[in-house]
Design brief:
The protein is an alpha/beta fold. Helices cover 20% and strands 34% of the residues. Bound molecules: inosinic acid (IMP) and magnesium ion (MG).
């Protein structure tokens, strides 16, 4: 949807309800807790889209979990990422020797996560895994290993539960998509 920022959008029907989301996030928390049993982990929230998912997910993981945040930007605005990924806000803490779980809102082209994972792996962590709330595999341009996926979605522009369009709609407790008005 690049270059269509002038178009007005309206919110379409609910794609995932609050209840569906909460149930799935609980399942993901259980799976992650089993995989990291006896270990501690650093949950890295990718700002800002993953804030809501992160806050729900970590409360379903009864292990020693510390938090950190990172913000990546793929240059450009609107609904398309450009491919050049830079870190706008880095982690506050060292991840050397730690189990890192990157918590992401949605994987689209895969560029952001591929770049982030590579950058974090340079810092000698014990492990780096990825948990994403949504996956849009039909849009993938680069390969990236994703360890935990909440829901797979079709190629629509999705908002709610942390995901935005022009910084709006992040606070919707459900998932919907935008339609041209
Ligand atoms: P990627 O580098 O193309 O995988 O871009 C991933 C980032 O683009 C996500 O972390 C989101 O911030 C944003 N993004 C991709 N698709 C959507 C969408 O459908 N709704 C809202 N944000 C999206
Ligand atoms: Mg994001």
């Amino acid at each position: 949807m690049a270059g269509r920022d002038h178009i007005m959008y309206k919110v379409a029907e609910t794609m995932l309800t609050e209840e569906q989301i909460q149930n799935r996030v609980k399942e993901m928390g259980l799976e992650i807790s089993k995989d990291y049993e006896g270990e501690s982990l650093v949950a890295v929230c990718t700002l800002k889209g993953a804030m809501i998912f992160m806050s729900d997910l970590v409360r379903e993981i009864p292990l020693t979990v510390t938090f950190d945040t990172i913000a990546a930007s793929s240059y450009g605005s609107g609904t398309e990422s450009s491919g050049v990924v830079t870190i706008k806000k880095d982690l506050d803490m060292s991840i050397e020797g730690k189990n890192v779980l990157i918590v992401e809102d949605i994987i689209d082209s895969g560029r952001t996560l591929k770049a982030l994972k590579e950058k974090l792996l340079e810092r000698n962590p014990k492990s780096v895994k990825i948990a994403t709330f949504l996956d849009k595999p039909s849009r993938r341009q680069v390969e990236v290993d994703v360890d935990y996926i909440g829901f797979t979605v079709e190629d629509k522009f999705i908002v709610g539960y942390g995901l935005d369009y022009d910084e709006q709609y992040r606070n919707l407790p459900y998932i919907t998509c935008l339609e041209e008005e």
